[in-house]
Design goal:
- This protein is α/β, with parallel strands linked by helices and 722 residues long.
- It is built from 26 helices and 25 strands.
- Mean pLDDT is 83; it is low at 1-35.
- The chain has a six-stranded mixed beta sheet with strand order 3-4-2-5-6-7, with helices on both faces. It has a six-stranded antiparallel beta sheet with strand order 15-16-17-14-18-19.
- The longest helix has 24 residues, at 698-721.
- Helix content is 36%, strand content 17%.
Length: 722
């Protein structure tokens, strides 16, 4: 593969033009010139951008005018009525007793510029609060959102809907509609905060920040909201952007298949693509790029980053969502308060369309933390959103035996404790110890017990832990809470540490300390004072006892620079991508334990001054790895720039330089390299693993390199601590 950024032969003369910009310039397009690829392509990374423009260069360009329009709001807000009238302005409206169970997806074809079809895929979500846990998995970026609320209701739950759209829709535009029940128009004064915050991207089309709708009165407001929707669709980053010509017939073939099949394997999806153009979809990455694009548009669902689901492509998204909603809405499961028996699935999913698809649907329930298997009856499930709330008398009262912690939120997404229950389901004490807003845990080894209670109205989650090694169980819960919270954007709770003194443990209003303030205070003083109990509390001990860490004293990861030849960073006949292999074998130190933070020039972004960035990384890193090969030794930029900076910093003891011999070459004859201790030991190259009696595979050679790097990291950390 050609480099994303071209290096100048003379390092002083920079070629700042990204390689994909050069590819773009080679395309001869008479109209609608290309400026940037669709956002969906850009988000996949630089390699995807380059592949996109190379495809355009090779096969030409065509255009898709499709977008996702998402209707949200509480039940009876008028979403289905609007959906029907957008498609057909004389369509009969649903009655008041009608309710959207699950989701309804309808295509709206409307007039636009040119001869191409302009289509909005309208997703109408059921608005009942029991559906809230499902919404987050199907609200996507680059959609136009219409949020409806009715004047028949005094509570519109804007504090849920608008932040939730922001969470999962990113900077997608939000059009607010007021459904004027029986013609009643009411001034809304509960939008001020959201209107003043540009993050929420609420579209103002007139004097009011919402459009008044009365579809029963000659479609009042319909024309206005249609125009607002179309205007925003045309501004979406992917709308009308060029795509490779081969994608158009493949898109049509997928649409045709979706008429008869709801869900297919990725293998069958690939076959459909190959049938339309065997040459253009010859490699797996060609098919994956196309699938990513369709998923981003809401045309299909393909969860490529979820191992349990990546082998399936859902051609009709409503098929999957309605299968989930059928579980939520089932009368028998509601009567059992959220307990699902193994036989319920065959009863609820009895339609032919679900035949042979139970396992993928169950995986969706589990992966999206909507339901989880029971602890002792593995074929049965629990769906927390249908459980009862915890009875007040079962909530643990504060006393001396508990470690306590409280999470407080400005915006608290719905169902956080449900997701926590799913993540730690193996530790739930019993099937009767989980509710829709609380859960009791018991560690199977130490028998320590915990209770976690969600108070949605006060936007807080409280944790109480007791027993032997209560701190260990608290740490387990904190880690799981971090994983849950990390799936949301800009949701940063304040962690409150109650004072553990005897007076506070007996008090209904104990002294509390904010975690962030404790970290800040720890820089200047060792302890804090509790006025209630008149005692001093060591900050380190206070944090340690509840399982929190003092991040201010945490050792930072070591910064590592990887210098390599492009020939060794590509799949080649010589044995593979050595850069990729090296980084994968380092992952226990980088991804999992975060002891090192590797950087190489594949992390450069479009438009970045690559020479400046490389020099910056070289001059600030702790370790420099040199992936040595014949091509490495013959790369001029490496010789003139990277090696010069690396050796100088090594000699000044500012960093450590580690040669990693990936392919056999005469590196020991180069004076500035020969004095360095290299890996693998004894001078064997990774690519020559067959010559080493201790290595059965190339992975054995890389494992040797990993072990030596780990020793180096441990020594580095020990010196830093001293």
């Amino acid at each position: 593969m050609r480099p994303l950024f071209q290096r100048a032969k003379d390092p002083s003369k920079l070629v700042l033009k990204p390689r994909w910009e050069t590819a773009k310039d080679e395309i001869n397009v008479s109209d609608n010139p290309i400026t940037t690829p669709p956002k969906e392509i850009v988000e996949q990374g630089n390699d995807a951008v380059l592949r996109y423009f190379e495809r355009i260069s090779n096969e030409g360009i065509d255009y898709l005018y499709e977008a996702k329009l998402t209707l949200v709001g509480e039940g009876n807000a008028g979403k289905t009525s609007l959906q029907k009238r957008l498609v057909n302005d004389i369509a009969p409206l649903p009655t008041e007793d009608d309710r959207t169970r699950g989701i309804l997806i309808i295509d709206w074809a409307y007039e636009g510029p040119g001869e191409k079809k302009h289509i909005a895929h309208i997703w109408d979500f059921g608005g009942q609060d029991v559906y809230y846990p499902v919404h987050r998995f199907f609200l996507t970026e680059d959609s136009v959102f219409v949020l409806l609320a009715s004047t028949r209701q005094t509570l519109h739950y804007f504090d849920y809907w608008i932040p939730t759209i922001f969470q999962f829709g990113g900077n997608s535009p939000i059009i607010i509609g007021q459904t004027c029940h029986q013609g009643n128009k009411v001034p809304w004064n509960d939008l001020g905060y959201y209107l003043s915050n540009d993050d929420f991207n609420i579209i103002k089309t007139g004097q009011r920040p919402y459009i008044e709708l009365n579809l029963l009165n000659n479609n009042e407001g319909l024309k206005e909201i249609k125009k607002a929707i179309i205007d925003q669709i045309e501004l979406l980053p992917h709308y009308g952007k060029g795509v490779p010509k081969s994608w158009i017939p493949a898109r049509e073939a997928i649409a045709e298949t979706a008429k008869t099949k709801d869900c297919i394997s990725f293998e069958d999806f690939t076959k459909i693509c190959l049938k339309t153009n065997a040459e253009k979809f010859a490699s797996k990455i060609d098919v994956e790029d196309f699938a990513h694009f369709l998923h981003a548009l809401g045309i299909v669902l393909w969860y490529s980053d979820i191992e349990e689901l990546q082998h399936w492509v859902i051609l009709q998204p409503e098929w999957a969502m309605n299968a989930v909603y059928k579980i939520i809405d089932d009368d028998t499961i509601q009567e059992r308060r959220g307990h699902i028996s193994a036989t319920d699935f065959s009863r609820i999913w009895a339609e032919k369309c679900y035949e042979y698809r139970f396992e993928i649907l169950k995986k969706m329930l589990q992966v999206f933390k909507i339901a989880f298997r029971k602890k002792h009856e593995k074929l049965d499930f629990i769906i927390p959103c249908r459980l009862d709330s915890i009875p007040h008398e079962l909530i643990w009262k504060d006393d001396a035996k508990y470690l306590r912690l409280v999470y407080k939120y400005n915006f608290m997404p719905r169902g956080l404790v449900n997701q926590l229950s799913a993540d730690l389901s193996r530790h739930i004490k019993s099937d009767s110890d989980v509710w829709n807003n609380a859960v009791n845990f018991e560690h199977k080894d130490t028998k320590a017990q915990a209770q976690v209670v969600e108070d949605f109205y006060n936007r807080s989650i409280s944790i109480r832990v007791t027993g032997k090694d209560a701190r260990g169980l608290m740490m387990l819960i904190i880690e799981a809470m971090r994983d849950v919270i990390d799936s949301y954007k800009r949701v940063t709770p304040s962690i409150i540490v109650p004072c553990p003194c005897q007076e506070c443990k007996r008090s209904d209003n104990p002294t509390t300390f904010e975690y962030e303030k404790l970290l800040k205070w720890s820089e200047t003083k060792p302890s804090v004072h509790c006025n209630e109990g008149d005692v001093k509390l060591p900050i380190e001990e206070l944090l340690y006892n509840v399982g929190l860490t003092n991040d201010k004293k945490k050792t930072r990861p070591l910064k590592a620079f990887i210098s390599y030849s492009k020939h060794d960073g590509e799949l080649a006949k010589n044995g593979g991508n050595y850069l990729d292999a090296f980084k994968k074998h380092l992952s226990p130190l980088s991804t999992h334990t975060e002891l090192i933070q590797p950087w190489d020039d594949t992390l450069l972004i479009a438009g970045e001054d690559w020479d400046k960035k490389i020099r910056e990384q070289l001059n600030t890193c702790d370790i420099i790895f040199l992936l040595i090969s014949p091509d490495f030794l013959n790369t001029k930029y490496i010789q003139d720039t990277e090696l010069q900076i690396a050796i100088k910093r090594h000699e000044n003891r500012e960093c450590i330089v580690v040669p990693v011999i990936v392919r056999a070459c005469g590196w020991t004859d180069i004076p500035m390299l020969s004095k360095l201790s290299a890996l693998p030991r004894k001078g064997d190259a990774v690519a020559s693993w067959k010559n080493n009696i201790n290595w059965q595979t190339i992975d054995d050679a890389w494992k040797h390199v990993y072990d030596e790097v780990k020793k180096l990291i441990d020594q580095f950390a020990k010196k830093t601590a001293e």
